[in-house]
Each structure stands twice: as C-alpha cells, then as structure tokens.
Amino acid sequence: MSKQSKRREALVYHAKPTPGKIKVVPTKKYASQRDLSLAYSPGVAEPCLEIDKDKDNVYKYTTKGNLVAVISNGTAVLGLGNIGPEASKPVMEGKGLLFKIFADIDVFDIEVDTENVDEFIETVKNIAPTFGGINLEDIKAPEAFEIERRLKEELDIPVMHDDQHGTAIISAAALLNALELAEKTIEDVKIVVSGAGAAAISCTRLYQAFGARRENIVMLDSKGVIRTDRDNLTSQKAEFATDRKINTLDEAMVDADVFVGLSMADIVTPDMLKTMAPNPIVFAMANPDPEIAYQLALDTRDDIIMATGRSDHPNQVNNVLGFPFIFRGALDVRATKINEAMKMAAVKALSNLAKEPVPEQVNIAYGETRLTFGRDYIIPKPFDPRLIAEVPPAVAKAAMESGVAKEPIEDWEKYQNSLLERLGSDNKLVRLLLNRAKTNPKRVVFAEADQLDVLKAAQIVYEEGVAIPILLGRKETILELMKEIEFEDADVLIIDPKSDEESSRKDKYADAYWKQHQRNGVTKYSAGKIMRERNYFAAMMVNEGDADALISGYSRSYPSVVKPMLELIGMGKGVTRIATTNVMMTQRGPMFLSDTAINIDPSAKDLAKIAQMTARAAKMFGIEPVMAMISYSNFGSSNNERTKKVRDAVNLLHRTNPDLVVDGELQTDFALNSEMLQDIFPFSKLAGRKVNTLIFPNLESANITYKLLKELNKAESIGPIMMGLRKPAHILQLDASVDEIVNMTAIAVIDAQEREKRRQKK
Ligand SMILES: NC(=O)C1=CN([C@@H]2O[C@H](COP(=O)(O)OP(=O)(O)OC[C@H]3O[C@@H](n4cnc5c(N)ncnc54)[C@H](OP(=O)(O)O)[C@@H]3O)[C@@H](O)[C@H]2O)C=CC1
Ligand SMILES: CC(=O)C(=O)O
Ligand SMILES: [Mg+2]
C-alpha cells in the first residue's frame, strides 16, 4: 500500500463512521421508569450515602475499580514531539482502546492544557477520586520524572508513567531473552542508549536492576553523548554520564553489543551497525518510525537480533504488551502503587512466556506456521491470549508479597478463569482470518466489481495481500470507479463477460457448460447466452480452475445467486445438502449459528449433516466446536414431531460422530448457561462446557436469531458462510458493508487454502 493510501486509510478510520475510537456504554438496565429511578434519583442517593460513610465503598458501587485515566499534556507524543494536548488525543484514545481489548479496563482519556509541572500535578490530584489508576502518557522528560514521583507520593492509587515503566518492562524482558539467544550476559554487554528522555532513562535503570553495569553504558541525547564534562545536565542524565572519550553515536557503536533506541527515526546507519560486536542486539523503538528501518538492519547484518516498536515486523517491543496487564493485576488487588517488585514480576512473566510453546491460535492470528523462541520471536505477541492469564497474576502476587495490595486474591484458579472470561467480546477472530488468508492469498472473482463497495473491498484485500482479486463487471464502470478510489494502478485482471474482448474465454466456458447440460435442454446457443450472465461466468471461472473462489450476491437476493452456484458448481462429494453458518462476535466470544440461509425445514438427517459441516467450519477458524442442537424443549420435556426431529439428529450424531461434543435437544438458555445445565442435566455431554455452536431446528429460527443479535446487540457477524459446495463460492448479504465483503473474501481464501491442503494430503 502506498504511503498516501495508508495516510488516507488512517484518517478515514479515525473519522468514520463516528469520529474517534471510544465511547461510554451503560452497564445497567435503563428500560423502565423503575430502572431510571434506581440509576438516578432517588435510588442513586443510597450508594452516595454508603460511600459517604466509608470511602472504600466507592469500589463497591461505582466503576472506579476498573477505570483508568490515560493522561497527557501532549509534550512528547510518540516520536512526534511536543504537539500539544488536542493533537495527542488520538494516541490517548488509542491507549484506551488497547486497555479495553487486551485487559477489559475502561479508560477516560484526559488531555491537559498545561506544561507547568505544579498545575499538571494539581489537575491529576483533583480528578484522581474518579479513577482506580492513573496512566501518565507522552509527557516529556525531565518534567515526566517529577510529575510521576510526586503523584506516586501523594495518591493512594497506582500511578504509572507508561513510557517510562511500561517500556522498561517490555524491553527488559526482550533484552534478557535476546541476550540468552546471543549467549551473552547482561553484566558484560556494552550498551548504547540513544535518547535520554522518559523512556530511555527508565529502561536503562531497569536494565541496571537486572545487572547491566553503568560503566558499560553510553547514553546520547539530541546534543550527542552524555559526558561528565557537559554543562547543565539534568540529574537523570547525569546518572548516566560517561567520562570515556566518546563523542558521537558512530564512535559509541563500535563494538557495542546492544543498541537501545528511544529517540527518533533514522539516526542509525548501516555503517554503524557494521561496527557493532558479533550477534548485535538492536532495539530501535522510536515510534512511529524506528531509529533504523527493520529490513535495512536485517539486510546489513545477518547475525542481528532486531526489534522495533511497530506491529508490522517480528519482535514488536512496545509498551502495549505491558500497560494493560500491569494495570489489570494492580487493579485486581487494589494495589496502592506499582512498585519495583511488580515491575520485575511482569518482566519475568513476559520473558518466560516467550519460551513456552505458542498456541496455534497465535500462529494463525499472525499468519505464522510455527512461532518458536528464537531471533524472530523474543517476546510474546500482543494478541497472545496467555498474556492476560499470566502477567496480571504475576503482578498481583508481587503486589501482595510487597505489601501494597489492599484486596488480596485468595483463589488463584478462580482469578485466572475470570481473566480469561474477560477476553470474550473482541474481534480477534477477524484478525485471525485476515492473517491466515494472507499466508497464501488465492485468486478470488468478485462477480459484482462494478459496485463501489465491492470494488473498495477488492482494493483492501489486494493492498493487504489477503487475496488476488479478479474484477468482473462492466469494464468502463470498473475503470471509472478504480480511478475514484485511487486503485487504478493496481495490477489486477478485469473481465467484462458481456464484452466481445472475452469471446474466447466465454466460448470455452459455454462449451464446458453445454457439455455438462446438453441432455437437460441446454443448446449451444443458450449456453453462449448464459455465459454473458456474471454469476454463471464467475462460477465457470472457478469450475475451470481460472479462479480459486468467487464472491457474489451484493446486489441480488440470496436465492437468485445460490441457484447458479448449485447448478454449475454443485455439491461436494458425499454432500446431500448445502447449508450456511454465521459467526457472531458475542460477549461470550465467537458463536456459530446454523443454518441461517438455505434449509427451510431440515430433516433429522439434514440437521446432523448441518452440524457436521458446521463443526468443520469452526475448526477452520481454529475453534473446537461445542455444539448444542436447540429447540423449545429440553431432553424430551416436550414430545412431538418437531422436538423428536432434533433428538433424532442428536442420536444420529452420537452414533456416527462419537467424538463430536454435541447434545440436545436443548432450550437456548440451558445451552448457553453451563451452570444451569450442569445443575439440571448433569448427564449431558455439554454439562460444564462453554457452548460455541448452535444448530437451529429450522431456517426461520436461525435466521431470525442471527438478525436479532446483529441489530439489537450490534454483534458483528461473518457470513452466511456457504458449506457443502464442490468449490469455494461465497454469497454476500444484499447490501453487505465493505468490511463484511472483506471478511467474506478472507473466508473464501481460507476455504480455498483448506481444500488445497486436503488435495495435497491425498
Ligand atoms: N516502543 C515503545 O514502546 C516506546 C517507544 N517510545 C519512543 O521513544 C521515543 C522517546 O519517547 P520519550 O522518552 O517519551 O520522549 P522524551 O521527549 O522524554 O525523550 C526524547 C529523547 O530523545 C532525545 N533525542 C532527540 N533527538 C535525538 C537524536 N538525534 N539522538 C539522540 N537522542 C535524541 C531527546 O534529547 P534531549 O533530551 O536532548 O531533548 C530526549 O532525550 C519516541 O520516539 C517514542 O515514540 C516511547 C515509549 C514507548
Ligand atoms: C508506544 C508509546 O507509548 C510511544 O511510542 O510513546
Ligand atoms: Mg507513549
């Protein structure tokens, strides 16, 4: 993607559909007058009085305990410098988003319009009663040091300047691991630190706490090496002043083992890297652009262990790995501070986790075949679900042991489970899909590429490397629209089935179609005519191996697109029914709902087939299916033809697929409430399990439910995903959004990848 389109994409992302990245959502009922009288006057007076009696009750009756303030004055925003409070807001909202998705912590971002230390401290102190913790962000040194020190002294909630300690924790964990790989010891290595600001000073202090020796450290600021003979050094810089005869970064890099960059972009040259010691460790952490570009560094030295602060390269050493989990642990024991013991515990938890086998889900999410501890994987990935289970307990334990926890945890297993539960409602699955598609992009025909939204989706998948789009439709319109969205330079195949330019292709497909259907009343002439229809043409492209998958249906009703797919592509071997599933991103995690689009009143046998196909689809997403066959009856509580049909389907599945975790017939609330199910029906295969797949007794119930969830809960939905066709063909909902089309394209690509794998295995 060009720099210009990345810029445009970032601006549109922030502006549309609503400006900004976070919002406030009520957590209590507000449907009736009664609810409102509890939420506000008169009911609200009761918790006020309780808190008035005992201030600690504020944790019991308000959001304080899970609410963190991300506060900045905009004086050191990423590596962009002093751009002021308003311009810092996107970053602070971004931190809020990360706190929420990684650790389920709510955030108010607060941008303060002052560079005066006393005024800033006063502001934070005055608003502190609202919050369970204070995350100071992007405040420049040396002011940041005093601000944090005084707030820590004066407040009884955890205060952490993330650029200092978040960064220090992550980079220390990465450094310990990199040193292990380079077979060097922290006590002996020569370290060059570029930057002497908030992040650099705190990182270096923490490396010292782990054994780095001051005489081995050279630190530089914007004026060059920090030497003892320089005037007007701040006390923090003076801590690292050297009396060695080194004046420039070039000189400092000679024979250095480690380079730590927390300064600004592009100040390290390949020549400098060449003078470093064998197996050099280079952490170029300036954001958004590192001190030396990742690829340039790798091209310069093949023995390098390289990390940046960016998410688009291996080894992202960025405080995003720290602040969500450190605050989670601190809030959960109501720590009054984030102290050295808690920081050290986080470092150890992170560095140990990188050496553990990586769950398949993480490999899939990052499009990797097998992440293992090594030069390209020295620190866990932010989307690793183990982070929330490992880091907060380590931090919480350290808080308890060091005497700063006001609410110690007693049941650690229960705590760990509650942490995992917090990860239910995000959209990691979508990221997982896109990354997986990117590992082996396939040719996807977009049968309605002359529709703007379809074309926009094709542009995204092309630029992101998710798929190789083939654009079908009126060529003139497609070219015009491509210009409009600055997609005209893309190297993509455009085909107009109605144009004479395509006559040889059309003849080939017409001939193949005629041979298939000549005994069903299709003449050569009618076969030629039908190939002018885009969905037939697209299906033939897939049939004839000229494309790997197809996407259609944006502008036509579902049944009218299903028909040519069934007629031309047909069902897979052994398949007696096609069906669809929708994946809903719900509070409890992704849920598969089947069949949402095809089978009006499936028989018991059909239901069993739908369940089998849905199980396979769930596995394609890296999810082990736990399936409930639902009804309005529980295990025979209502006995009639309809409930018996579901029971028969379950019996059939238990016979044919004994390993499948499936049971029923069950009412939906029992299916979704594992405790209720365990209490009343302990014999069920699903008792104590978290159901993630619901097979509905008929189309009405499935379709109504998924649309209800989508509209009322605003649950994101992927699908309907077509199951059972002989080749990958996926049908969009009428008027699908660009995101939905992109997601369906990723599904189509993964579908094609899976089939290829199966073919190769045979
Ligand atoms: N990857 C990550 O997780 C994180 C990365 N960072 C990045 O680190 C950088 C610094 O952030 P932060 O410490 O908060 O900001 P500060 O403003 O506190 O510090 C910036 C430091 O960089 C120094 N500097 C500027 N230009 C040069 C240069 N050419 N050579 C050497 N040093 C230079 C400044 O020198 P002087 O003192 O003379 O002004 C100052 O010491 C930013 O790019 C930021 O994005 C920060 C936090 C986390
Ligand atoms: C990551 C971060 O906090 C920074 O670059 O400032
Ligand atoms: Mg920052």
TrEMBL record:
Keywords: Metal-binding, Multifunctional enzyme, NADP, Oxidoreductase
UniProt xrefs under PROSITE patterns: MALIC_ENZYMES
Annotated Gene3D superfamilies: 3.40.50.10950, Isocitrate/Isopropylmalate dehydrogenase-like (3.40.50.10750), Malic enzyme, N-terminal domain (3.40.50.10380), NAD(P)-binding Rossmann-like Domain (3.40.50.720)
Annotated binding of a divalent metal cation, by residue: 137-138, 163, 287
Domain Malic enzyme N-terminal: 19-152
Cofactor(s) the protein requires to work: Mg(2+); Mn(2+)
Ranges of residues in domain Malic enzyme NAD-binding: 164-400
Pfam families recorded: malic, Malic_M, PTA_PTB
An example Gene Ontology molecular-function term: oxidoreductase activity, acting on the CH-OH group of donors, NAD or NADP as acceptor
Enzyme active site: 95
Positions that bind NADP(+): 77-84
Biological process according to GO: malate metabolic process
Family that this chain belongs to: In the C-terminal section; belongs to the phosphate acetyltransferase and butyryltransferase family.
Name listed for the protein in its UniProt record: Allosteric NADP-dependent malic enzyme
Phylogenetic placement of the source organism: Bacteria, Pseudomonadati, Bacteroidota, Flavobacteriia, Flavobacteriales
